[in-house]
Design a protein that fits this description.
The protein has 169 residues and is of the alpha/beta class. The protein is built from six helices and five strands; from the N terminus they run βαααβαβαββα.
Length: 169
Amino acid sequence: MSKKVIFLDFDGVLNSTQTYKQNNGDRLFYGRKSHWSWELLMKSVVSHYDFYKIQLLKSICFSTGAEIVGVSAEVTSKYYPLVEEVFVNMGLPIVDAISSEYGRANAIQTYLMDHDVERFIVLDDEIFMGYEDFWDFVVKTDFYNEGLTEELAEEAVMILGPKKHINLK
């Protein structure tokens, strides 16, 4: 069964410089040798992201039936499983993560060849070499100017297309 996929770079899409300014008072910083409790670790992870941008991403997924594949540099972090768990618990349909060790565009191309993908978009705040091969499917956010916005969310929905409804009659 073919599917719709959002290749997501978390940082710069689900946050921005404004997020860091707004959340700076609540942000928790820890040294490498700190003993983190689960609650403090969760608060630290979530404080890096903008709740409204997460809701915009959820609305894209709900409107289109798309699933999320992480392509962020974060997917190689030892804390990525926690980040993924937090987002899944918030309702984001994250189904996979791919390493961009050999280039983000190459990783996306390989994923597309190995999976039955009907439509896709790339939500990213940076442009990487190779993105020109699927430029019409890149929705570029701006880390320094809001990250994911309503207008960009609408563009993403237009590219992915609406969710197909099944008539059971």
